[in-house]
Amino acid sequence: MLFIDQIFKDSPNPTYIKDSQGKIVWANTAYALLHRSSLPQLLENGAVEFDFSYERDLEILASDEVASIEEFYKLDDRNGTWFLSIKKAIVQPNGERFLLSSSSEITDLKETIQIAEDSFATKEKFIHDVNRELEAPVNAIISLVRLLKKTFINKDQKRYLNSVLSISDHILDIPKDVLEYDRVEAGVLELTTEVVSIVHFIREIITVLNLKAAEHDVSIHFSEPLTRIPDVEVNPVYLNLILSKMIRCAIRYTKSKEIGVSVFQEEKGDNLVYLQFSIHNLELGQSAEFLAKFFESDFVPNSEERYKMGGLDLGIYTSKRLIDLQGGSVWLKEESERGMSIEFILPFSINDRKTAPPREEASEPDLSDALKLLLVEDNESSQTLVKHQIQNWNTKIDIAGNGEEGIRLATEKAYDLILMDVEMPGLDGFKATSLIRDSNGPNRETPIIAFTTNAAGHEVEKFREAGFTDYLRKPYHAFDLYLCISKNTGHYEKERLLAEKRGTEQEMPLYDFSGLGNMAEDEVFIRKMQKLFIDIVPGQLLKLSQAIQQQEWETVALLSHSLKSTFGNIKVTRAANAMKEIEAVVNKGTDYSALPSLLEIVKSTTDKVVNIFVKELSQNQ
């Protein structure tokens, strides 16, 4: 060991050598001090008091790989020190194996990274706050414009309204695109992957985008490939972002009424396939020169250019960066017959196993068999609000402008639910409800909901005595209205049972560490991951549940995004998919009915994973 002694004896980097049995046969002073021991005592014992690296060192001894591991040590002053340890097996001519380990302190680096992550988290919260402030007024503008488009207007007016819709979408995109841009530039990337059929994946995106395209008098046509493309492993967040931004870019800049989207297999290896995506039939005109700049390989916007780029264009640049980071390429192509096209190639790992059929998105509620509602409300603004809130809920609604008209409709037709304003001139909601209950009409047993501005304790009892089934206090959120309708029509329980049935039918592995790469083979690291999961995830779920109950949607959005990544990293697929849907529902902000059943899926899946992890950790102690 003479040459080792000469090299490492006085080095500040803790260094040691172990034999094939894991006994320390040589160490330097830095290593002894790190373990609060004298060097002679350490070498005499051949071990330190708490050697957390023992099992892992034996594994490295048996392999020929070089291991690079981050290790944390607590010091006497309760502070901690991080080291990056390089470990490698050394084989002597006689076949005897030794392990050489040398560590370098990286505490400053880790603290710098933590500061950067904290700074990004602060910026992320600020951008979420800005987005929340923008959403309400801009969505109100969008709703009004859509109502105006249904009236009798000329072509010029329709074009102006389409421009307003485009600008409104653009405003809503800006905070999200800034956030995605900062994530990519800061290296804060999602690791979640799932196996998909590319054709189904693209088809679902185009279905959503066609609604946006129609507002610009543009249609999207998807040409499905003639030959089958194998199922591949994708990062759904980033592929969705790339495809959506590129197609929306085409919608914004093209002068043609129809654009085409296609995908085909460019090249295939043993476990890898290169797919080329094409968005074509674009009449770009002068915009072609502007867009070409984004697709130049060396284009990096400076701070002034980022300010000028705006939301959608910044999204295009972010998409290009994501393509580059995944080993792909993107370019603008001129075609003689189909105008210009946006082309990009991406590599994907082949995972051609049988996958479950594509899930239906939970973004829109589905009150099956069209609920028949009667709204008795004298205020026109309140009538418009209710109609707007339930317009996508698969309902049929009749409106009565006063109590007398409400009584007449209730005697002529059976309803699933009656929404009754309490404070109406003339025949108020109390008298109208009593008359319905005392009649022999079709709605004698129908649930009747009281709309009221006063819901004190004595008033609630008064509602029950008058025959009301439930009440809803004004002003209320769409979430409250939907839950009230669901609860009093039995639809809430039906949704829960359907969710449980879907969960039973789509059995899949509870978790999978293979997405962690080489670290999946590190048993010590995996045990730490399991311990962290047990310590952190149930507490975060409790906070998420409380935030949903208290309708703190900003907190729900942040927690669901964080938990989605946590579940995705170890492929707890059912929980990750449910968290993805929760995040989508909250970000859209129009339908919260699916949240209870989705949260139940996450909780039950988490309980199963925690139970398994606890059992495995106890067996390894």
UniProtKB/TrEMBL annotation:
| Organism of derivation | Rufibacter glacialis
Q: By what name is this protein known?
A: histidine kinase
Per its UniProt record, what PANTHER family does this chain match? HYBRID SIGNAL TRANSDUCTION HISTIDINE KINASE J
Xref: CDD domains: HisKA, REC_hyHK_CKI1_RcsC-like
Q: What is its EC number?
A: 2.7.13.3
Gene3D superfamilies the record matches: 1.10.287.130, 3.40.50.2300, Histidine kinase-like ATPase, C-terminal domain, HPT domain
One MF term in the entry's GO annotations: ATP binding
Q: Which GO terms describe its cellular component?
A: plasma membrane
Domain HPt stretches: 522-616
Pfam families xref list: HATPase_c, HisKA, Hpt, Response_reg
Phosphohistidine, modified sites: H561
